[in-house]
Write a structure and sequence with these properties.
This protein is α+β, with helices and mostly antiparallel strands. About 45% of the residues lie in helices and about 10% in strands. A hairpin with a 3-residue loop joins strand 6 and strand 7. Helix 2 packs across helix 9. The chain is globular and about 55 Å long. The protein binds manganese (II) ion.
Length: about 270
Amino acid sequence: MIVVTRRRFVAGAVAALGAALAAPRPGAPQSASAGPPAPQLLEDLVAANHILVDQGVLDGYGHVSARHDRDPGRFLMSRSIAPELVTAADVLEYGLDSEPVAAAGRTSYLERFIHGEIYRARPDVRAIVHSHSPSVIPFGVTGAPLRPLYHMSAFLSGGVPVWDIHAAAGDSDMLVRTPALGRSLAQALGTRPVVLMRGHGAVAVGTSLPQVVFRSVYTEVNARLQAQAIALGGGHVTYLSPEEAARAEASIAGTLGRPWELWKRKSLGR
Ligand code: MN
């Protein structure tokens, strides 16, 4: 008799859980999926995760997303796992509120609000990387501005804002774990390609996955080189002028496919 009761209880609990998973959660849009993304986009998103680990931008943490090709109100991003382990099967669809459309029990990154709120604020953005890119960290905590010192990082010209979570939330665990914090970060990014996060990392945005990967890689390299140049030059460094940066960025824009093809092939070959 007891066994039957327990079985009934367990069956009831399972049914309730199923209903809870199927039922709309408060504040979460549960409209139908925008449909499967283009296979190329999905392949590139997986590759971007692996490339950024290969290039020292991501480690066990950080995430990459792409706006859905069928619906600008949706984006694609892996469930909460280390970037190096991401496969196409791990990619979830999100609304701009950063809630998954159909998580089916899979967990999401705590800082997914970075992505939804930037896609909301920046219609031009089609891909986003959040990293703890190690060489940029000193520039987020010292007041030393990150500036382009060679042609590869010309996109940094015009200023790299630093977002301080303390100004937005006081003492916190440093994570962008709410829509309000995501909005605050998106506001600090403004129209720029990169924003630093004080004591945490950076966010890069782009119009494509190859572009945002390029920007993430060369933001990290520029930060490393700039710290070396400041040390070597006793503080004196000649940076690209705004005119040089504009010309260099325009020239390099036409060659983004070259490193992307290389990086992608290497990431697939391992
Ligand atoms: Mn983070």
